[in-house]
Amino acid sequence: MTDPSRRPRVVIVGAGFGGLACARKLDGAPVDVLLLDRHNYHLFTPLLYQVATGLLNPSDIAYPLRAIFRRSRNVRFRQATVDGVDVGRRIVRLDDGAELPFDYLVLAAGSVDNYFGNQAVARVSIGLKALEDATRMRNHVLTCLERADAETDPQARRALLTFVVVGGGPTGVECSGRPARAGPTGRRYPASCPGQRRRCSLRHPGRWDDDRLPNDHLVGRGPAQRRDRRGVRPPFSKSSDHRGSVAADSWSDCGLCRW
Q: Regarding predicted confidence, which is higher, 198 or 221?
């Protein structure tokens, strides 16, 4: 028999934009809220590319969840990884074997990279969904630049200074200009590579003009000319099919493929 004095228990899986908004909306309501996430911070994903390109530090876009709800009386946070849900028993199972009962369940676990079945690209590219992806990409770009500084073979150096970005959305357009222009630290290096420009190939599925992308309006006037000055080269879609899969010649001879 249900205890009428017990408040409803709400379990929220995921502390991204959806889960965090739900928890804040229920803050102060006559319910007990348990917010679950495998990380103890809320990640502002639209600025991940700025961490990947060295414009921001990881702490600038990751805010501690316990600090957000430190004054809340009914919202608790628990760092955990959800292993499954038993809807019949109204139980959330964690990877450590713990079981958490709920009256209401909110699933806001987020998304993962979709390579459209192209495992060849998945093995050699870096996605941009998590903070670890951004720091890995930043460190990899820096490593490529440092290796190019010591490389004596022009062809190998050219490969190290070539970057492929797949996806012409806002993140892809913004991310593509940084490695080709100034590098993650903002300095033009390697200094010992005179006349060797960094190159960034921006790939986007579908049919678009050779000098424009569907999100060019987001970066202001003259995007094609600005991309050209930064070393971002068209064509943008000739190496992509209708599913967004990238042909092998787009990434096999480059320092980084970013999906």
A: 198
Task: Residue 132: give its domain's CATH number.
Answer: 3.50.50
Whether residue 18 has pLDDT greater than 90: yes
Contacts of 182 (CB under 8 A, 6+ apart): 188
Closest alpha carbon to 141 in 204, 187, 205: 187
Residues across the chain = 259
Number of Cβ atoms within 10 Å of the Cβ of 225? 10
What's the pLDDT at 221? 42
Task: Give dist(CA 53, CA 195) in Å, integer.
Answer: 23
Tens digits of residue pLDDT in 70-90: 999 999 999 999 999 999 999
Those residues with Cβ within 8 angstroms of residue 143's Cβ, 6 or more apart along the chain or in another chain? none
Closest listed residue to residue 209, CA positions, set 188, 186, 238: 238
pLDDT value of position 2: 58
Domain CATH code at residue 89:
3.50.50.60
How many whole angstroms separate alpha carbon 168 and alpha carbon 175? 10
Question: Does an H or E element contain 26, and which?
Answer: helix 17-26
Residue 124 in domain:
yes
Q: Whole-prediction pTM value?
A: 0.76
Q: Are 34 and 131 members of one domain?
A: no
3-state SS, residue 154: helix
Q: What is the pLDDT of residues 213-227, one digit of tens each?
A: 555 554 444 444 444
Question: Which candidate, 191, 154, 179, places its Cα nearest to that of 258?
Answer: 179
Active site residues: 174
Domain of residue 34, residue span: 9-107
